[in-house]
Design brief:
The chain is an alpha+beta fold and 81 residues long. The protein is 35% helix and 19% strand.
Length: 81
């Protein structure tokens, strides 16, 4: 299962959330719904080089796709969307 970190208030995340709705291969985590979910995302973001360009450009780095093998991508296309 691919975990998607995002927020419904983000237009790109909203589009992805609609696209994966009902697809058991994906799980959407709303990082704004609880501080624990935000911390989970920030631990991933702070340590993973996949976010380097997003951080350099002042972006949050969502939607973010965490694959089962632990690899991360910020590209929906990379996970078949």
């Amino acid at each position: 299962m691919i975990t998607v970190y995002g927020m419904p208030s983000c237009p790109d995340c909203e589009t992805v959330e609609k696209e994966i709705r009902g697809n058991e291969n994906f799980r959407f985590v709303d990082i704004g719904s609880h501080v624990g979910k935000m911390k989970e995302f920030l631990r991933l973001r702070d340590k993973n080089p996949a976010f380097d360009e997003a951080k350099r450009n002042g972006y949050i780095g969502i939607p973010c796709f965490l694959r089962e093998d632990g690899s991360v991508t910020l590209s929906a296309e990379d996970v078949g969307l």
